[in-house]
Amino acid sequence: MMKLSPLHLQQLEEKGISKEKVLDQIETFKEGIPFVQLVKPATVSDGINKFNKTEEEKLISKFEQLKGLLSLLKFVPASGAASRMFKSLFVFLKRYDPQVEDVETYVNRSNDSNIRTFFKQIKNFPFYEIVQKRIKEKASSANDTAYEFVTEMLLKEGLNYGFYPKGLLPFHNYGKFAATPFEEHLKEAARYAAVNIVARLHFTISEQHQSLFIEEYKAVAPRVSKATQTEFEVTYSNQKPSTDTIAVTMDNEPFVNKDGSLLFRPGGHGALIENLNEQNADIIFIKNIDNVVVPMYEDELTKSKKVLAGLLLEVQQKAFFYADQLDRNDINGEQLHEIKAFLENELNVRFLENFSGFSIAEQLEILKDKINRPIRVCGMVKNEGEPGGGPFWIKDAHGHISLQIVESAQVNTSEESQSAILKNSTHFNPVDLVCGVRNFRGEKYNLLNFVDTKQGFITQKTKDGKELKALELPGLWNGAMAFWNTIFVEVPLVTFNPVKKVNDLLKPTHQVS
């Protein structure tokens, strides 16, 4: 049994973490986290819906008719730092000496195609003019200019972009100003998440960046309000200290810091299920901060979002009708079969083979359990590159089959059959969700009741030169939503435009024409 010192107990109290939770997490390290068991990839007509133009128009119309009666919210995970975006440029600063070589020599020597592209197309970056103005007086040669440009852009003594939140970097150059992803999310929300000319957004951000986001809102909101004829209600939250997870040694003992305190680490984006659970709305759109587009692509993106929301409302209406019938125990045999067919065909619920062997009362209880769950409609993009996180049918330890978003890290790729299923996936997850979080009575579900706590990740890290094991909570759209009812819909590739590397800003979806 693990003994906790008074210092450790004080730590737990300050973070709001119970001793039981820590013991559970240590047990998880000891047991390990089993791989997800893939049954098959979800494909069009087998787990993924694909709509024709007429069907899309019908769903858009449904959303337009009903949205005035609903509260809508756009939920944006936005705590990501920009440092990973600039990885190749940080390496450049470390290894390049302008006194010894020019950029071309460096590129040829290092064979770094990212740096080659960066400098070749440097004028097309949205921050080019901003940085140029600041370094005009500083550089003395062409070599210096390249070095000074990157230094000024990334480091603390300059613009400090390398340590900024990604949501506040210049992404799109409009000539008179460069828009950040934060500003683009406001514009986007005005197009599909506004009710009575008010759009509500909630950003989950790092505590140290809160003042920067508030300043950015003050600077851009008047401009966006004027352009979109929309007012905005913007709120923020931070990942809770109570969702941090304990780190352990390679022998599964709590990792103790040099000062004697226990090492806790942030629990990953799965921790945000707690932030999501505190939001109050009928329909919640979820989309990552770096996934935005320039105006040329806005119409297609807006249409896609409305299709997803229309489908959610259509399915939800039926689910509420049946949930009410079940609640009143006003069901005959024919209706029981009708509800089961609805769950199977429209909410992708799968029943155990021996379901028909249960008594009618037991069958009704199962139907009540299956229908009274939050619903998520998730956009899925056709796989154009390497398979990663995507839509699959999986089987759990109890033999239940369900539709899930699975990351490749959750799959035992050394097992040939599992690796083959992963490779045969036709779609991937762009993080494009529309969520219904209320029951048929209009009460909000407690989303923490629908998390599969056994779908986290164990990773290896180092601290003070020592190896350790860290625990990530089940991902927000993976295990944290494992027990939701799930619908997948094929959406256009244009809805997926993340900026993982700085050169992604050169793509057409980020270039204002």
Model description:
By secondary structure, the protein is α/β, with parallel strands linked by helices. The protein has 15 helices and 20 strands. The chain has helices at 6-15, 19-31, 53-66, 87-95, 103-110, 113-120, 128-135, 142-154, 181-192, 210-228, 272-277, 298-327, 333-346, 360-371, 416-423; strands at 37-41, 43-44, 47-49, 72-77, 172-173, 178-179, 194-195, 198-204, 231-237, 245-246, 264-265, 283-287, 375-382, 390-395, 401-406, 427-428, 432-436, 457-463, 466-472, 485-490. Strand 14 (390-395) and strand 15 (401-406) form a beta hairpin. The longest helix is centred in the middle third of the chain and has 30 residues, at 298-327. The mean pLDDT is 93.
How helical, in percent, are the residues?
A: 25-40%
Name of the level-1 CATH class of the largest domain = Alpha Beta
Q: What's the shape?
A: globular
CATH superfamily of the largest domain: Spore Coat Polysaccharide Biosynthesis Protein SpsA, Chain A
**DSSP E strands, number:** 20
Tally of separate helices: 15
Low-confidence stretches: none
> Helix/strand-derived class?
alpha/beta
Distinctive features:
eleven-stranded mixed β-sheet; 2 domains; Spore Coat Polysaccharide Biosynthesis Protein SpsA, Chain A; three-stranded antiparallel β-sheet; alpha/beta; 513 residues; 15 helices; 18% strand
Break the fold down into its secondary structure elements and pairings.
Blueprint: H1 6-15, H2 19-31, E1 37-41, E2 43-44, E3 47-49, H3 53-66, E4 72-77, H4 87-95, H5 103-110, H6 113-120, H7 128-135, H8 142-154, E5 172-173, E6 178-179, H9 181-192, E7 194-195, E8 198-204, H10 210-228, E9 231-237, E10 245-246, E11 264-265, H11 272-277, E12 283-287, H12 298-327, H13 333-346, H14 360-371, E13 375-382, E14 390-395, E15 401-406, H15 416-423, E16 427-428, E17 432-436, E18 457-463, E19 466-472, E20 485-490
Parallel strand pairs: 2-3, 3-20, 4-8, 4-12, 8-9, 13-20
Antiparallel strand pairs: 1-14, 5-6, 7-8, 10-11, 12-17, 13-16, 13-17, 14-15, 18-19
